Amino acid sequence: MADPSECPTTSGGLLPPELHAWMLMLAATGAVEQELRSVVKERLDVSHDEFLVLCLLAADPGQALRMTQVAELLGRPKTRLTYQVACLQHAGLVTRRSVCGDKRGIEVALTEKARGLLKDASDALAETVKEALGRFMGPAQRQALCALMPDFAAETARE
């Protein structure tokens, strides 16, 4: 990965500033995601896409989510999600059940095993993200984030 200080700035070029800023942010988050993949595989023994499903369910671990909600929130096709959830279920990390009163609806929830694994791995995963962001978020990416989220930038400046 290139040194963040070598990354292009958010001004100039053919793209509008907002689109250029978005592309810089995607590049930085993509680099972080790449670093996270190996830690996810090592700590949880799941794919990155399966990890995203677990994270979504972990946001409210006592609640089940409908498969359609998960697909929409992750921007994944339902057929791909069905495969990922089947892999997670086979590993004992999620449960699937029919939604009461809806023959076609399926809910997914974390198992105790998944909760324990996520709890045990969360510090290492968070540290990986923090370190990677520190390496890949140079001045251009920070400027891009501020350009995309001016309210966030103002709040950060006040803190």
From TrEMBL:
SUPFAM superfamilies, per the entry: Winged helix' DNA-binding domain
Organism of origin: Streptomyces sviceus (strain ATCC 29083 / DSM 924 / JCM 4929 / NBRC 13980 / NCIMB 11184 / NRRL 5439 / UC 5370)
InterPro entries named in the record: HTH_MarR-typ, MarR/SlyA-like, WH-like_DNA-bd_sf, WH_DNA-bd_sf
Protein name: MarR family transcriptional regulator
Ranges where the HTH marR-type domain occurs: 18-154
PROSITE patterns in the cross-refs: HTH_MARR_2
Organism domain of life: Bacteria
BP-aspect Gene Ontology terms: response to stress
Molecular-function annotations in GO: DNA-binding transcription factor activity
